[in-house]
Design goal:
The protein is about 55% helix and about 25% strand. The chain has a four-stranded antiparallel beta sheet. The chain is built from four helices and four strands; from the N terminus they run H-H-H-E-E-H-E-E. It is elongated, with a radius of gyration of 35 Å. It is an alpha+beta fold. The protein has two domains: about 1-60, no CATH class; about 70-170, Alpha-Beta Plaits (2-Layer Sandwich).
């Protein structure tokens, strides 16, 4: 029987050639891979589906977060604008920059019930100091937004930058803590 099987395999190899043998080899490798990996993948998929169901049930059971108050109630009142500007100047001093002058413009938005205090500040300093200033200013006041930044320098070799920073400080119309 073994001799007959060997003869048949030799005949099949001669008839199919190397492409046929390669195809048979790849087919055998695919069947082996399927038989060895598929049970593990099925178990992993089942475990992930169970975890997804558990997390979905937990999220449905979790209490809803309390409603956020309207934006105007979360903002500082207009009477706190000088404190916010003082924090801006303190952040500049902490970064090693001096603010000499600036333009300040208060605009109202009747539909939203808030005020926009637009602040334009020209500053001079090196790039790391400007970055420290912006990081400190924006991190110290949640109502402050950087609207624009213009950087210039006289020559490529110069380390000092001239910057014009445009901020908006959002405030509520009423008095807030």
């Amino acid at each position: 029987m073994n001799r007959r099987l060997a003869h048949w395999l030799a005949w099949l190899a001669a008839r199919a050639g190397w492409p046929g043998l390669l195809g048979l080899l790849l087919l055998a490798a695919g069947l082996f891979t399927q038989a060895s990996l598929l049970p593990d993948l099925a178990r992993a998929t089942s475990a992930l589906e169970d975890e997804a169901r558990r997390l979905a049930a937990r999220q449905q059971a979790a209490p809803l977060a309390p409603e956020q108050p309207p934006l105007a109630q979360r903002l500082q009142g207009a009477d706190r604008a000088p404190e916010a500007v003082a924090r801006l100047f303190a952040a500049a001093g902490k970064a090693g920059l001096e603010l000499y002058e600036g333009t300040y413009k208060l605009q109202g938005d009747p539909a939203a019930g808030l005020l926009r205090y637009q602040i334009t500040l020209p500053v001079e300093g090196d790039y790391p100091a400007l970055r420290r200033f912006l990081a400190e200013a924006l991190n110290s006041d949640a109502n402050l937004a950087l609207d624009g930044l213009t950087l210039t320098r006289e020559t490529v070799e110069e380390t000092q930058l001239r910057a014009v920073l445009r901020f908006t400080l959002y405030l509520s119309r009423g008095r807030a803590g």
